[in-house]
Amino acid sequence: MSEPGQDRVVVFDTTLRDGEQSPGASMNLSQKLRVGKALAELGVDVIEAGFAAASPGDFEAIQAIARQVEGPAICSLSRSSKGDIEASWNALKDAPRKRIHVFLATSPIHRDFKLKMAKEEIIRRAVDGVKLAREKCEDIEFSTEDAARTELEFLAEVVERVIEAGATTLNIPDTVGYALPQTYAETLSYLKKHVRGIDRVILSVHCHNDLGLAVANSLAGVMVGARQVECTINGIGERAGNASLEEIVMAIKTRADVLRVATGVKTERLYPTSRLVAQVTGLQVQRNKAIVGQNAFAHEAGIHQHGMLTHRETYEIMRPEEVGFSRSSLVLGKHSGRHALKERLSALGYKLEDAQLDKVFGEFKVLCDKKKEIYDADLEALVIHGQILA
Ligand code: KIV
Ligand code: ZN
């Protein structure tokens, strides 16, 4: 929740649309509904449930989510065409809160090779799409696809014209993950300075991760005034993925001293939601993934474990419970020290004299060179079968 002096950032989750575009991540209707309900419980503000015109299955899933998921606004993506906008509207109309999301590419490479349209036609189509969507629905988002590779003056012109036409959220995608934090922030600052009416709309960021910068670029956007972030659970999405929701939310929470904004996300739901999305998509989360990876709160090095046993903040900037883990883990391996071993043995009920501990510690290190991780059963075997306590 935001505190006095802190702006609220709208969390727009696109796991079910852009996330589902990850190769191999498609979900069936009941899986999409489970994820939709989990996102509502997590406290996101907008769920982009799909792209209604893309397939009958996508249409049905958006309609089911619009009818059954309470809380967030439900959104459907549409190209800037009558057929797509009508499909989105038909899928969404039963939702208590709904948004139509219209997009059209603006960069030279997309204009010349994909759309084969001149600048004037891009503007005309964008404006017509927004006007049509606005006849159906009050909440309209427009995205200038590939904005990060678009000439700034033309981008500003398109943005100004779609705001005049009735768009309420203006999204500036880095579709191919090309931007750097500084260049992306400069693009948004340019728009804030040169576009009439920009203060009437919510400026939004949508960053892909091709250079591993999606979260950094999104936060750079927030620092210059973006107040919506588009992101996905576990960062799934086209190619290298989208900005990861859990990383953005926890950066905003942990560094509120600098960012001075807040989200409405219930952070303790992050880990369970991450597990659900991994399970239904089959896309496993890497062990060292920030916030939700198995190693995110695991400590192996002896010096770190000693620090953690003395004061957890020596090596943890967030509490694991804040993101839904039950506790930090001190993993026993070849980098672990006597303190951690003593602590674990004592938790297992073995109180050893110093000389006994020395002996187990020596045998433990020998074992560590043979095994990657040492489990409780291994320690019991060392103590009992090594006849330390016999
Ligand atoms: O990456 C992108 O440009 C998109 C838009 C359709 C918003 O996903
Ligand atoms: Zn995208």
From TrEMBL:
GO CC annotations, alphabetized: cytoplasm
Pathways per UniProt: Amino-acid biosynthesis; L-leucine biosynthesis; L-leucine from 3-methyl-2-oxobutanoate: step 1/4
Protein origin, superkingdom: Bacteria
E.C. designation(s): 2.3.3.13
One of the GO BP terms on file: L-leucine biosynthetic process
Sites where the protein binds Mn(2+): D18, H206, H208, N242
Keywords: Amino-acid biosynthesis, Branched-chain amino acid biosynthesis, Cytoplasm, Leucine biosynthesis, Manganese, Metal-binding, Transferase
Catalytic activity: 3-methyl-2-oxobutanoate + acetyl-CoA + H2O = (2S)-2-isopropylmalate + CoA + H(+)
Cofactors (names): Mn(2+)
Keyword Nucleotide-binding: no
Domain Pyruvate carboxyltransferase: 9-271
GO molecular function: 2-isopropylmalate synthase activity; acetyl-CoA C-acetyltransferase activity; manganese ion binding
Function: Catalyzes the condensation of the acetyl group of acetyl-CoA with 3-methyl-2-oxobutanoate (2-ketoisovalerate) to form 3-carboxy-3-hydroxy-4-methylpentanoate (2-isopropylmalate).
Family that this chain belongs to: Belongs to the alpha-IPM synthase/homocitrate synthase family. LeuA type 1 subfamily.
Subunit structure: Homodimer.
Name of the protein in its database record: 2-isopropylmalate synthase
Organism whose genome encodes this protein: Anaeromyxobacter diazotrophicus
